[in-house]
Amino acid sequence: MSLDTVTSSIDDAVSGFFEPIAKWLGDIVFYSVPVAGTQLPLIVAWLVVAGLVFSGWFGLVQIRKFRLAVNVVRGKYDEKGSAGEVNHFQALTAAVSGTVGLGNIAGVAVAVSIGGPGATFWMILCGLLGMATKFVEVTLGVKYREVHADGSVSGGPMHYLPKGLTERFGARGKTLGKILAVLASAMILFFGLFGGNLFQVNQSYAQLVSVTGGESGMMGSSAGALFFGILIAAIVGIVLLGGIRSIASVTSKLVPAMAGIYIVACLVVIAVNVSDLPSAISSIIEGAFNPEGVAGGVLGALIVGFKRAAFSNEAGLGSAPIAHSAVKTKHPASEGLVALLEPFIDTVVICTMTALTIVIANPASWGEARKGESIGGVTITSDAFGTVLPWFPYILTIAVMLFAISTVLTWGYYCMKAWTHLFGRSKASELTFKVMYTLFAVAGSLLTLQTLIDMADAVLFMLAVINIIGLYLLAPVVKRELNSFLDYVRRRDAGLDTEADEDEDQEPVKTTV
């Protein structure tokens, strides 16, 4: 029996068993209501409303404190002797690597096909709102993190939900918090294995096959798939063994490289078509308020744009605080401010560059997709670049590989923290997880398991419901932390001695073995 036959049998068996479950779960999580001729997923509205609430609650912190956030990333307000494992820049790149991925390439193309150019405007707006949500959840992640005896750090919703709710509501909050922590860990683990690992490897392998001769090319065989899977698994396994320091070291170089390659390519296409740039920008703005051929009109374009942004930057989902919690700082809000740059980079910059490139290049495949033809998002983006750079599919393949590897690495760290919360931090437990995670990377090149990937998406967005309720309840804590850090910044900028203040402001961090 050939390897292809075996993998096809596995795919069919898994799909047959899980398809009814995935459909049922998806129908619940992504339940939509009709609005002006189109469908609004309530989970997207939930995420957008959270962005609006937190933007108002914290006085548009994403705009007023943007420059301060950049200065914190640059190391201007680093604090000596802070607990943690990585600096602000490394924490940011580690978290960004988990959100910047194939969705920025393929998902945006789908958005501007369904919602027209105007979807880009609403995508940017949603990204700006998500910056406030990300600020809140990451501040809590650092506030309630645990520093272990070996200096490693654990954080995320599985920590700040139980600790924060206990602190604010006593025994009742403690019981609820423990339940939510287990659910959060299970949801992160499930999504990480299938969405953050298997799917990324599967899609990057598909792109590699497409530029090496297709199914009849050198990578199109089952042997080629197995080789690719083992290679990715080896890279991931080696980096995972080094923990967040190793991951941050890789992503701090990988993220700027992959973003740089992609943005430069976008700028090349835009520069060649610079005379069409004003009309492209005009079509994006006009399409946001007067779209043509879009179901639901303005609301249709808005919903598509918001949906793409919400799915892309993961603001409110509770995943990013896990990476940010490892930062070296004594003021949780300092990393919260750093984190608000994440949706800006992911959605406002990279997603917008993709959309603008497609609109200005106007490839034939995009026109066909807007008429209802079923065309893959990666194909549309690749064709847009191909109008100027015929060889770009090869560059796109490199970008996809970098995006995929960085995402797999970051979700490997997220998953390990969820795993150890559920099963303990022993060396045997961690090794078991790392072996399992690398095997999933191998499977990613051989299997599609689309049904389980669909389930993983639903599970991750279930976490958003739990997480954002916790963010609302704990927002006063974030307000205090922000005021504390801003006071520290004022004193430091004034040249005053802040060492004593740092010790007073520093919350006691629970240290565990």
From TrEMBL:
PANTHER family: AGSS FAMILY TRANSPORTER, SODIUM-ALANINE (PTHR30330), TRANSCRIPTIONAL REGULATOR, LRP FAMILY (PTHR30330:SF3). It is found in: Cell membrane. Pfam families: Na_Ala_symp (PF01235). Belongs to the alanine or glycine:cation symporter (AGCS) (TC 2.A.25) family. It comes from the Bacteria. It comes from Streptomyces venezuelae. This is D-alanine glycine permease. The chain crosses the membrane at residues 40-61, 179-199, 219-242, 254-274, 391-414, 435-453, 459-478. InterPro entries: Na/Ala_symport. Keywords: Cell membrane, Membrane, Symport, Transmembrane, Transmembrane helix, Transport. Its main location: membrane. GO terms for molecular function: amino acid:sodium symporter activity. It is a multi-pass membrane protein. The keyword Transferase does not apply. GO terms for cellular component: plasma membrane.
